[in-house]
Amino acid sequence: MALSALAVLDGTVLPADEATINVTDLGLLRGDGVFEVVKVYDGRPFALDDHLRRMANSAHNLRLEIDLSAVRADVDALLAEAGPVNGAIRFLVSRDGRRIGLVEAVPEIAPSVALARVEYVPPRILDGVKSLSYAGNMLAQRIAKEKGFDEALLVTPHGRVLEAPTSSFFASFDGETLVTPPLSDRVLDSITRRRLLSLLPHAREEVITYDSLGRVREAFLASTTREVQAVSRVDDTTFPDTPGALTRAAVDVFAAHVREEIAPA
Questions:
Q1: DSSP secondary structure of 245-262
Q2: What is the topology classification, in CATH, of domain 112-260?
Q3: CA 150 from chain center: how many Å?
Q4: Which of 19, 107, 143, 220 has CA 20 to 30 A from 199's CA?
Q5: Is 223 within 8 Å of 200 (Cβ atoms)?
Q6: Residue 209's closest CA among 169, 239, 247?
């Protein structure tokens, strides 16, 4: 069975094209639900406990009751059937209580990306929620690509840099330290972001403004599926070090961290 053709629906593993939900499900009609994506290396999920904790927090903030033990069992069943694959598992719970998991291929990651500014105002009511309501993020990506760029960089109307639609933004102004926008700016509490902040000795949270990007020496995006990916430019501002030494170090440190965590006990 192809990597992307496997699913689990409420505990039953089956071909993805046979997994169906009711058209009246509010996860479909309203984007009312929560989801997570976990990277899988040779059949071993990375940071699954972190993802499940974040899903529980998202569900709590969304006033959505979920059975986290059942979600974990679904993921385990899907991994057992998929075998030693390299890819990702997307799992979600809808407002109507349907539990859905999918095995997905991870797109090939280019050495670097060019970002286009897209104005964005985070919805405060969804603070701490990784919900199915991702239309705004996907539209930002399309707008950036219409401009001829690879990805969007979300920036507030007041010029505060936030993140990319599905990844965190890190930058270095001095070639020695890395900064990433603070959670208080309502960026996603990314698990990869959190791990990098703990792994990299000279990384910290700090407000980044769009006007300051001309002083950036190097930058990268970080997420579950892309891990660490260099950023070559934002709009007309090209970063001189792509990938820079800090970006290359982050790639190596994170890869070693993953290998250590998923190693058999």
A1: HHHHHHHHHHHHHHHHHH
A2: D-amino Acid Aminotransferase; Chain A, domain 2 (3.20.10)
A3: 16
A4: 107
A5: no
A6: 169
